## 1
Amino acid sequence: MRKVFLTTLIVILVTGIVHGGYDVNDVFVKGDSTLMGMKIESTYFDKGAFLIETTGARFEYTNGQLKLYQGLDSKNRRLLSTITFDNEPDFVKVESNEDHILFWSKDLNIGIYGDSTCIISPKTNQQMNCLGNFKPDYEGRYKGELLLIDDKGGMEIYPQRYEAGYKIKKIKLGKQNWTAEYELNAGERVMIAAFPGRPFDWEKSFTSNVAVTGGSYGLGVGNPYGQMASDWAIKRWATNFHIITVFYNGFYKLTDINGEQDPAGPYIVANEPEFRRFLRTAHAAGMKVSVYCSLYSHARRNRSNANFYSQISVLKNKFNIDGIYIDGLRFDNGSSKHDDKIGNWEMVRRFRQLFGSDGVIVYHGTSLGGPIATVPNIDTYCDATLNGESVAFQSANDSYIQYQVRKYGISNTVALWKPGPHPDSITHKDITEALIRMNGRKRWHLSAARPKPPQGRYIWSVRLGTEYRYYLDLLEHNKRVYLNKSNR
């Protein structure tokens, strides 16, 4: 009997979710949206038709048409798009919980998630037609991938670029009744999401000041490799910062042939006693600690996600870190096989599950400045997202800044901004004021000055620049305005 049970368990783990003979593993994605305050709020299902309410959207299906509504107010949601499938699939509900509902049909499977994401997986070659019902202010497009945003939110349509392949039959934007029509091959999954999937967390945003630091390189007398900031410096940092990110420089063991740390990993802490001291002091001072990792670099070197999640799990279990700083996910770098938006979404969902609702995920979008670089249903699992590196802009009103750097009303996470090339007439003060208008937050670097060997010691800065002090003044004013409105 025990042998039969174990065999059955292994089959379930290998094949995925199978209930009553209905395999919906192709639309099942690991993670838990409820940890970020997003969930399946209510459901109705009858004879193949369904109505599902999530925290930020409504999905209505009947007679081959899926209607997608968006809005955090469940009584005043607006229709974004009507999505039509071939053969009018007759769905069977296979699994239902607060995070997701999975449906099976002979032609098509669908998974709907509490973060207002829908995963569609056809089993036969067929058409999928999307008819719009709102005119976006921002229309990001790369091939058949669409990012459509206005002042109320919006939606994304992302066919998986690296899977079975798809053809664009017709895409016409620039109007309320925009159209996007696709010919999908069997196995070609599509991710569609409405956003924002959750309200903006004002209280948390006022405790989201991020600082970045690192370790030493072991140069000079009395500087062991992997030495970190002193307890005195850490306690000083805690007066202004809530999240401290430890970069890979001087922190992880040297692994690359040039004698430097590799952002792709492996992520092995160079000086464990020093890091444990750093963690104890930071936690005692009220700061959360996140450590560096890069799925982008890891996947480029390894051509897969293999071992990436497990390395971070080891760091979490070994040191009780609060979270991670992800320096890039798997996005296109010229090879369609590198792009994996559903895989990115799953990875961030899994990390949120690993670190819990009180954990920290800071995501840096590297230098992606393309029209669909932002994926709001991924961003929303993060505490803060850093965009803009190397992306040139002429003013703070450029569309990339307003609709991809800004997160308020889109993913409702906290926006960080690393400004790219811009005219000299745009000052640090201008950038700081624009960031506060976007309800974003400013990060700061707390780097150590390298000593000149063989003498000298590392000294970590505790001084704040004029621009950061100006930011703190604006943030305090912003907080007072919010509290005054809340108390009325």
Note: The first helix runs from residue 2 to 15.
## 2
Amino acid sequence: MERAQPGVPNSPLVRVGRAPDAGVKVGSVIADKYRVEQELGRGGFGVVMRARHLAIDQVVAIKVLTAADDDEWQEDAARFKREGQATAALRSEHVVRILDVDVLPNGSPYMVMEYLEGETLHVTIHTRGPLSVSETADHMVQVLAALAEAHAAGIVHRDLKPANVLVTQGAGGTMVAKVLDFGVSKIAAHSGIAAGAAPITRTGAVIGTVAYMAPEQMLDAKRVDARADLWSVGIMLFELLTKKTPFGKVDDPHIVTSMLTKPPMSLSALRPDLPPALEKIVLRCLEKAPQKRYATAAALASALEPFTTPRARPALDALRRAGRPSGAAAPLEKGAPAVLSAGEGDARRARRTAMLVAAVAVAVAVLFLGLAIGVLIGRSKAEPGGAPSASASASPSASMRK
């Protein structure tokens, strides 16, 4: 049974007072073809269910956005639709497959996904503890294969974290990592996804999960490129190897200040057995200036290759064939959001640090206040930390905020 870890928020998009009511129950038939067999997970923004396709006897997972009537419902619905479109556009073995997207009679959008048996990396870390170097590298190379395809298609994920990577059994019994939850992804206009639609993310909005969010994403989630995802991969590498995040506990509001102004904790101090070359890779991912990080998912995967096992070979081969980031994922050199850099004057650096910390701290304070109030009034059946209780096989997503 997959459980959220206490005090680990899955997303800063917290709202209070919306009761989940997806309008479907066990035994219900959706679209005259999907019979609901079991509720797998529920949160303040939606529900995930196991269902069976009646015509072909195929087990699927169905994710339904909670029906509600408030000012942000249209934004939630648009983001949910975009998630389905973005994910369906990708063909990588390391991205969850979307089979159908539609709307229930009550107006709630839903998506039908492949049903996966397995557990998220979040569960793996918190039940087994730090992983070996080879297992960590194998997982992350597969994640990078998914990112490389997304970036080439002009899609930036923007919410990579262990809870959004599910490890399941693939063909031949090999373990396969799959990236979930493209609900807050940034998508290029040329990709053809939601062409002509108004932007969903407001300028200056904090979108994603703070503890895994690149510094430039904190400033403006619209003005990021593929390298923001590679920062998140660096955070995950550190966490898989140490069971800690590099800038402090994920539920500490002071983590924002640490991420923006301080270097990460020493990886070698926490894991003296790690190769120095691996620590250098992680530190490069966590450079505060995007231009100092790896330029592409393929470049980062190439650096990790010496630490992988044969299990990662198909993903590495796919990465060698991957195109370069394009559209929304292409490097933003001109007009990119300002981030802290070593070359800035002390006074200017101090001013910009204070402004950025203050702006993001407000969003983080709202996040934790919302979580506290949500728990007090029992707004959902979620486990502590805001994630729904779900079967390890639930998922396409352990984070249901849409």
Note: The chain has two domains: 29-116, 118-370.
## 3
Amino acid sequence: MDHFYALIMAGGGGTRLWPLSRKHRPKQVLPLTEERTMIQITVERLYSLLPPEHIFIVAGPDLAEGLHMNVPQISADNFIIEPEPRDSGPAAGLGTFMIAERDPEAVIAVLSADHHIAQEERFLDSLRCAEHFARKGQIVTLGINPSFPATGFGYIKRGEPVGEFDGTTVYRSEGFHEKPDAATAAAFVQSGLYSWNAGMFIWRADQAIREFTRQQPNMARDLLSIATSNGHGNADMTWKNIDKISLDYAIMENAENVVVIPVDMGWSDVGTWGTLFEVLAKNDDGNATRSTHSAHIQIDTHHTLLVSDRMVVTIGVDDLVIVDTEDVLLVCHRDRAQDVRNIVARLREQGKDDYC
């Protein structure tokens, strides 16, 4: 696996985890699921598979310094800077083109900086299998075995088996499906043929570049220009010309030779307070806490998430999210956790950027 690399996508703003996650302190550098930050967990789980010099991180200039402080073992040269957010398609493309400039034989695992993975050995075994098949010319995606009919994730349908590696079976992909309605999601799960699309892709760099060239020729031309100039010259202006588009839309939905590895590894994207609640350990009343304070008092309180570093007292409440920071207190029903990002949009409309 001398030519195997990881490209960690770390550019998201984490607005659904406001007010803890802010522009100057996004969720990637927060200790959400344990005492280590999300970026530290993401990098360190790869150490038994990859040397630090084969781990790259793509992020904006305002995030790179903070990320590097969290993972100083990753060289500053391995931080790939996107001048401004252009969505996951250009970000993954930029990383792929730049790694290919260093190693034309590279196989790259495109991963996220903010995924919780409870069963890390299964994840690493899946990456080993994915590298094997990517080396042979497949574009591999890790599909998550669905635990419920989620409407917040896209899905991947699997077809016939194409092979096996070290006990892991790989299937031909029969297509990506956007976030479904409840009835469609239930049918997907009942069929047993669908996996959640977690946005983890493993590809040979030269094959990915061919897909970008075939499907997004203008983007590929600009990415090549930036990669070969090593970020100098008119790189920032070239980057601004690239369309904002997700990796799924830009490449994956119409890519050739796509296969899927269905895997059950205790995965969560930790994208909202609701998903964080599901990941954390619960007490006898079903409450979860992330705190440095041990003296919270909870009376007749059930299924509530509490994030605070000072004492909080709750009486007779259920199914809440309570997030207490130095300057903001958030209280919402767990079922409305997705709506937190709307608060950030409203604050920006009102010119209250200091709270974002």
Note: The chain has two domains: 4-268, 273-355.
## 4
Amino acid sequence: MKNWAGNLTFSAKEFIEIDNISKLQQVVSNSQAVKVLATGHSFNAIGDTKDTLISLKNLSNAIEIDSQNAQALIPAGMAYADAARYLESKGWAFSNMASLGEVTIAGAISTGTHGSGSNNGVLSTSVVGLEIVLGSGELVTIDESNSEEFAGFVISLGALGVFTKIKMRIIPSFSVKQFVYENIGIQAVAENFDTVFNSAYSVSYFSNWAKNSTGQIWMKFLDDSSSDNLSDNWLGANQAKAKQHPVKINNPDPCTDQLGISGRWLYRLPHFKLDSSPASGDEVQTEYLVDRKYVNEYIQDLRTIGDEIAPRVYATEIRTIKSDELWLSGAYQRETVGFHFTWKKSDTLVDFLPRIEEILGKYHGRPHWAKLFSVKSDELSARYPKYSNFEALLKKYDPKKKFRNKFIDQYFLNY
């Protein structure tokens, strides 16, 4: 079995699809080592195990909505797209989504996956409660209102137990209009960074970093008057008059509708339609979450190796994320910018990643947990003020190390 990108072959001895809680508890209790396989959108070995790999896709498909408290209890193995469709049918919404709807709730939450928006946190910040099976097989719940450890459990890399249900904040359904500006260079974006990224509910900038190349600004506005007076030209860019793909030469049909056509949140916040993927999987990805106050320096440093980046990528994306208090979040206690690279598969990429780390690792830049990176474990631990606190959770809740694997061994040395 391989991951979505095909760059990792899982090493588990067995694969089990779980369809009820009792079976899950039994499997976890009896296994020497266990991990959950969601849609396989991790690009490193974070989800691998030497013993038992399990799937939760058949565990449950029922969502419970608490309208009074604006919360939803959602099966952990459910895809964001399926959960979004159900919420919309009941008049509710997630406040934000990632680029792809096919990723699972638990997979996205536990790795700190995010969308975009200067006032939007990582997807995990919507979590208010968790139901989890521990290594002993015990089913427990943890809630943000009554546990000091909650902030360590949410983004926990699958290392504390198996999430079965996730309680999340929801908001009333809303509509979004999406516009794309094209032919704008990275230097113009750097010089007007706050203007660009604070201009809409969600903003992304796509480019390839080649010298003298230009990129696209994708802007997602709430369907109100804020987008009524957009000009055809802005910061030297022109408003696209035809639908765009982040990779200019690709067919834009899989992308969500643009050109200011209003649509409900689930059909605009992701970059790609809920039933579409951006590619066949012939790619791997890297992302760093960095301190926003140094963003101009990061951009200038990346520009110096832009002609080395360009032939290696399909596209890169810059997004902004609001500060949060989740221990292993890339946005922990700082306003954050994400620099995302969708790489072409290459045997030489591993030798190039330290160049990216040298630049984006400065000022405690934090790599996305589920993507490829080269930072050493002792350097990574220094970038998270609550790193030792999380290691204490590992010792407390997984004393038999059932959820440990090579990835956890490599980056959590004191566990």
Note: The CA atoms of residues 188 and 235 lie 7 Å apart.
